[in-house]
Amino acid sequence: MNVNSTSNSSNNPAAIRVSRLLDSSYPLTRDDVIWLLEYIKKKVADADPKLLDLSQPHLLKTFHSFAEASMSLIQRKNGDHEVDRLRRWLKDAVESVSSPLH
Questions:
Q1: Which of 46, 77, 82, 90 is deepest in the core (most CB within 10 A)?
Q2: H helix runs in the chain, sequence order
Q3: Phi, psi (degrees; rounded to nearest 5) at 51
Q4: Domain boundaries, the chain
């Protein structure tokens, strides 16, 4: 799955922002991470029909990634390695819930 090659992203501001935030060259801020977590939370709360098609192991992996990204805000470890891990967790969680990114 390549989140940067979405056909719908040119017409979808949220998809454009998600792609930008997941780009490894973009400097993530705390506000960016919170926005992504809110985006994921809203997709789940809205009961996106795509989520109903996901297997239980896939849902658990998505939740794990969401939880790890959330906890990283609380624990506040610095460093490039931590940013890479955070971005990977966010990407894993977003890809499961975001229609334009599939």
A1: 90
A2: 13-22, 30-45, 49-52, 56-75, 80-97
A3: -65, -30
A4: 9-101
pTM above 0.85, yes or no: no
Cα–Cα distance between 102 and 97 in angstroms, integer?
A: 9
**50-72 pLDDT tens trace:** 788 888 898 899 999 999 999 98
d(CA 61, CA 63): 5
Cα dihedral sign for 41, 45, 48, 52? positive
Per-residue pLDDT tens over the stretch 3-29: 444 445 567 898 899 999 999 899 989
